[in-house]
């Protein structure tokens, strides 16, 4: 199939490579030429804009950062809508606000372009391995058309509901993962301050009810002091901002998410925003009087 892809960062690049490996003809664009290079080397067709990517393809994907970026990619002067034919599908896989996804979808629909919001979980390893969890919002007909492409990218693929529903599911995912990263950093710091072997604490916890994939994966990276992103802390800060904005709009309390958002704010403010979110452990160390490297 002729497929388009915009946004070739930590996640987008391996996802685009998996679409190429599956035999699709891929048209790509990213703001910086160097972000595109690996994908062009693997056989993708380089374009000069998102509009050019969308010209002549049935389905185009984006994997950028936040809602203003998706707006620009979808509806900007040189955006998808400027090149896509009526009847084509635009799939945004970035994590953005559900309300923003609904708004972009309704404006694209006016030009006959179907949009799916399809954010993911699974991080860089899931993107490389084609094993992402994909949470989709949009029309079932569009979902059925795109499903074979989703199967090149992910293992668990769920149509959650109408436009915006994929982003709602992803917001729930970010509440759970954000709080989990913070509480594991908190517990590890507590063990460290008590002069207890943190690795042994982790091993013990993995055998009980505190076990989780975050304790296993993120916990191991905290102990190895591997802060290379992965998932940048400022991205998780953005995701909790999305969740709390929605909570404000709806008038509901999300106290645990709100407390965790403050910690991600503090990571960004103390120069840890470009670290992986597991750098949270450094923030706890600083707050406890330890000087973290
Ligand atoms: P990233 O490495 O920073 O990549 C973002 C890409 O989007 C870059 O290639 C950037 O282009 C491009 N981009 C950003 N704004 C753009 C714009 N206005 N116009 C055109 N291109 C634009 O980020 P990432 O980690 O891949 O994350 C991408 C999305 O996936 C985010 O919404 C994030 O929340 C979500 N996500 C990430 C993970 C993870 O573990 N990393 C997991 C699940 C979901 P340039 O390279 O040219 O700057």
Total DSSP E strands: 9
CATH top level class name of the largest domain: Alpha Beta
- Please state the overall shape, judged from the principal axes of the Cα atoms: globular
Query: CATH topology of the largest domain, which one?
Result: Rossmann fold
How many strands, what sense, and barrel or not for the largest sheet?
Answer: 6 strands, parallel
Mean pLDDT: 96
Q: N- to C-terminal separation?
A: 48 Å
Look at the structure and name the CATH superfamily of the largest domain.
NAD(P)-binding Rossmann-like Domain
Low-confidence stretches: none
CATH architecture of the largest domain: 3-Layer(aba) Sandwich
Radius of gyration: 20 Å
| Percent in helix | 40-55%
How many domain units? 2
Strand order of the largest sheet: 3-2-1-4-5-6
Classify the beta-strand content into a percent band: 5-15%
Discrete helix count: 13
How does this model look, in words?
This protein is α/β, with parallel strands linked by helices and 293 residues long. It folds into 2 domains: 161 residues, Rossmann fold (3-Layer(aba) Sandwich); 120 residues, N-(1-d-carboxylethyl)-l-norvaline Dehydrogenase, domain 2, CATH 1.10.1040. 54% of the residues lie in helices and 14% in strands. It has 13 helices and 9 strands. The strands form 2 sheets. It has a 6-stranded parallel β-sheet with strand order 3-2-1-4-5-6, with helices on both faces. It has a 3-stranded mixed β-sheet with strand order 7-8-9. Strand 2, helix 2 and strand 3 form a beta-alpha-beta unit. Helix 8 crosses helix 11. The longest helix is centred in the middle third of the chain and has 29 residues. The N and C termini lie far apart (48 Å). The model has no long low-confidence stretch (mean pLDDT 96). NADP nicotinamide-adenine-dinucleotide phosphate binds next to helix 4, strand 7 and helix 6. This is NAD(P)-dependent oxidoreductase. One of its GO terms (biological process) is organic acid catabolic process. One of its GO terms (molecular function) is NAD binding.
